[in-house]
């Protein structure tokens, strides 16, 4: 189902016809799902090769080494990322590439958080082949596609505020994102220092930068803001 307000926010994403999409990256840690989806795309769009990655980290490294794909299909839950973190991270690397979130979880709040973070659309893993192919064609053409029956839970003003917050999180460096994830897990600076093998003073410097970028005054506020956009947790 199209959503004009989300389409407006995704205006910077390039519009492509299916014929222009020559290289797709699927990021999904489930081998059977990944292989089945890759085969479906090859047959439906006449692709010779579909790139795959089993984690967000692997996807980032692949993009850096092999270049940007024409489109991305991203699983909601990965071994190293849950919720909107994957979209926020990839959107920073791929500002104009359509990113489709795919998941068995079609909870309205999660869909809305994903769209606010920069997803071009959100589709259910239960979709049949024809519906999946049609949804991807529409998304690549610039339409925002969501599961049937989806209704946003937030008013437009709240939705825009969440999208702005997601953009602020996208400004964090990978190391700052790792530190923020540990903060959300309740880790103290000393624990973060040990886990990331960096000096505690460096941790404090990063935290200061994080707080400035996301406009938070305290760690608890930073955690609440991350939870608002479902940055590290799905559902």
TrEMBL record:
Start and end residues of each Response regulatory domain: 23-140
Swiss-Prot/TrEMBL keywords: DNA-binding, Phosphoprotein
Limits of the HTH luxR-type domain: 165-230
PROSITE patterns per the UniProt record, alphabetical: HTH_LUXR_1 (PS00622), HTH_LUXR_2 (PS50043), RESPONSE_REGULATORY (PS50110)
InterPro entries: CheY-like_superfamily (IPR011006), EvgA-like (IPR051015), NreC/VraR/RcsB-like_REC (IPR058245), Sig_transdc_resp-reg_C-effctor (IPR016032), Sig_transdc_resp-reg_receiver (IPR001789), Tscrpt_reg_LuxR_C (IPR000792)
Modified residues (4-aspartylphosphate): 75
Name of the protein in its database record: DNA-binding response regulator
Lineage: Bacteria, Pseudomonadati, Pseudomonadota, Alphaproteobacteria, Rhodobacterales
């Amino acid at each position: 189902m199209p959503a004009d307000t989300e389409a407006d926010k995704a205006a910077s994403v390039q519009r492509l016809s299916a014929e222009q999409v020559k290289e797709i990256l699927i990021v999904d840690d489930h081998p059977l799902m990944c292989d089945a989806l890759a085969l479906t795309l090859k047959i439906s769009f006449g692709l010779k090769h579909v790139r795959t990655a089993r984690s967000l980290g692997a996807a980032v490294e692949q993009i850096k080494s092999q270049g940007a794909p024409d489109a991305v299909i991203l699983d909601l839950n990965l071994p190293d990322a849950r919720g909107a973190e994957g979209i926020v991270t990839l959107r920073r690397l791929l500002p104009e590439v359509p990113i489709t979130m795919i998941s068995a979880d079609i909870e309205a709040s999660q869909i809305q958080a994903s769209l606010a973070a920069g997803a071009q659309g959100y589709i259910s893993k239960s979709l049949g082949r024809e519906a999946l192919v049609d949804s991807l064609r529409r998304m690549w053409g610039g339409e925002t596609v969501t599961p049937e029956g989806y209704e946003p839970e937030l008013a437009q003003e709240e939705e825009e505020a969440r999208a702005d917050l997601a953009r602020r999180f996208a400004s964090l460096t990978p190391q700052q994102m790792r530190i923020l994830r540990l903060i959300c897990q309740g880790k103290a600076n000393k624990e973060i220092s040990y886990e990331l093998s960096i000096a505690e003073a460096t941790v404090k410097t990063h935290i200061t930068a994080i707080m400035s970028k996301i406009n938070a005054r305290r760690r608890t506020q930073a955690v609440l803001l991350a939870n608002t956009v479902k940055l590290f947790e799905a559902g």
